[in-house]
Amino acid sequence: MNDPRYPALLLLGPTGAGKTPLGQMLEQRGWEGRRCLHFDFGENLRAAVRGELPDESVSPGDIEFVRGVLEQGVLLEDQDFPLAERILRAVLAQRQADRDTVIVLNGLPRHTGQAAALRRLVAVHTVIRLDCTAETVAQRIRQDPAGDRAGRVDDQLPAIAKKLRIYRDRTAPLVAWYQQRGARVLRIPVSASLTAEAMWQAILERKRACDERP
User: 53, exposed or middle or buried, with CB in 10 Å at 0-12, 13-18, 19+?
Assistant: First the structure.
């Protein structure tokens, strides 16, 4: 029986590692001959606050809640997952995703509770882990090699430090969680000046190496 869930690829890495430009590139180029749809959860939360999502996906109360989440830099916990799911489903419908579309997840899930809940909707077959030190994160945010940090009010040092702690403690364990469930993990070391194009080439090399293993 065919899996009714959307096939998905998960981008993992700390803030500033380059997930968004890489996700945009995957959307442009596809994955293994299939159409990709980049779902940037952080950007969609910001879109919700700006009133740019379909009305049925978020209520006025949801918008106020999301505004607080963004201002405090916290994660949506398990009890809040229905909101994340409504936003994801609204974007998939809006973008006309079908079950042959590979969903590129960026910013969701952020911890194992979200990952477990998300399994009813998507099947993550590949995790791309962007390995990046705190020092490199700071350099990348200053240099903005992808040109995607302009206007980000959450790039101040205290906010960055908080995000790095949350990533280390809550998000990085997702690599092992998905490996245990059969997902392929492609690890890409990220330097201060690494571009999305260079990441793409590194991913293709890692993927080729994985595919050639007996």
Answer: buried
